[in-house]
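SEVERITY: medium
COMPONENT: batch folding queue
REPORTER: lab tech (J.R.)

DESCRIPTION
The queue accepted two submissions in a row. Attaching both inputs and their returned structure tokens so the on-call engineer can compare them side by side.

ATTACHMENT 1
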Amino acid sequence: RWGRGGGGRGRAGRGYPAPPSGVVIGAEPRTFVAEGSRALLLIHGYNDSPRSLEGIAARAHAAGWTVRLPLLPGHGRSLEDWGDWTAQEAIALVRDEFDTLRQQYGTVVVGGLSMGGALAAWVAAEAEPAGLLLYAPMLFVPRPMQLAVSTARLWNLATKYLIGGGGRSIHDPVAKRAQISYGCSTRRSLEAVERIAVGTAVRLGFVKAPLLFVQSEEDNRLPMDQSRRALARLGSGDRTVHWVRGAGHVVTVDYGWEAVAATTVDWLTARFPAAG
């Protein structure tokens, strides 16, 4: 499920024009600024971009939250950049983004999708945000990824790019076409996401922030049984769990994403009402 050898570039990386800045058009980091002291940091997933969290961000912004959507290292850039990023770089960026918001706002909630959820949980274990939003978070290493990484030295002899693996992550064809994704992995990118998942898994018990967890029962990446076990290890006493249906792994853009956004806003409003 995590892909097959592409024999080179293949169809990977096509169709994404980039300006001189080097960032693919549509994958830029962005900030939705609102008045008040509440801010939300949302981290996109592996082989993804901030676009996958725009809908959630727009709804939260309309409810009075400043929302920051950063672009992770290696993502949303050239195919060469995609093969040359590390877990340490991703973690450092999320820490810096969180620290920047915390210096400016009284209430800072962090969240993320898939690998971004793992990064959000990692930071929550260290920095104690006001709240934590996890959308199909990668809180463990999925078995197909374990296989892909363990055999990387072999398949990397034949191809640099492992094509495919995400075709069933979004059921909605319109949403699928709108996403920015390379359609491939490299040995280094897989090793980076594995390190993030492993590092997050050992920190789950240190996560104490109030938690909203959302995942599809039909998630093609993260089996429910493994997600339930990881969820049980989180140290958060205040936890709200929603299992949805009709969507794939990327619940923030797939069928039913509006309900996920409404659930998010309701959860945020109940715990962190606007001052005055």
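ATTACHMENT 2
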Amino acid sequence: MSFKRVIALNKLSFGFVLLLILLEAGLSVLFPLFIGYAIDDALVQTYGGAALLGGLGLVTLLIGAGRRFYDSRFYAHIFRDLGAQVGNNAHETTSAKSAHLRFLGEVVEFFENSMPEIVNSLIGLVGTLVIIITLDMPVFFGCLAMLAVVIIVYSITRKKTVRFNACYNDEQEQRVAVLSKQNRPLLRQHLSCLMKWNIKLSDLETINFSVVWLFMMVFLVLAVVGAASQGMMTYGAIFSLILYAFQFIENASVMPLFYQQWLRLTEIMDRLKFTNEKL
């Protein structure tokens, strides 16, 4: 049974988890705006904005905590069902089954922990852009330029990322077989190969992130200077704009990391799909 099939059989539970993720992400986008309201109200000695900010924080906390309690149990159920099938596959060696169970754990962990962050970042990107366009058009166009930089940088290195992950996973599948031979030189060679591909992946990500972050810092400095020069904006609006610009940078910077992770998991799911076809 494939991962997609298990999700389909539990579509109501998965839909409920996704709904909670969307609600939590949508509320999180409002924080800088509500902080701006609270600042403006506090400057005139009223505290309605602060009360709204506190209420937003409480509702977000309740939804986020409820979602985490629920989805940890949901994904544990999925891992148990799929893991039992992978572990009982008579067509695989013990080494391959051990690696596939670990790969399956990575897939489940991605959906449980990374998927909410991805949704939050996506909604954060869209939400910040929508609000920024109402506050300052030059900053909005700067955001679009930064998105173009991110897409170009990571598109250029996509093939290398997929190849490095495939080589790393190939070596992972040999681990139990290598350990069972109790051959120290062979084990050192195996671990060296693992680390070689891990270092290549790390170096590639470091270069990509550094290039993107350099452009992001230039954008942030220009956004701060531009916001400070807006004489028609309130202090709260200026502060909100700066916060949204920084939030945009955070979301735009983390999305490529999830993209890299997704490329790895796509390669892993192809392996697990091949395993499931033989069950």
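NOTES FROM REPORTER
The chain has a mean pLDDT of 77.
No errors were logged for either attachment.
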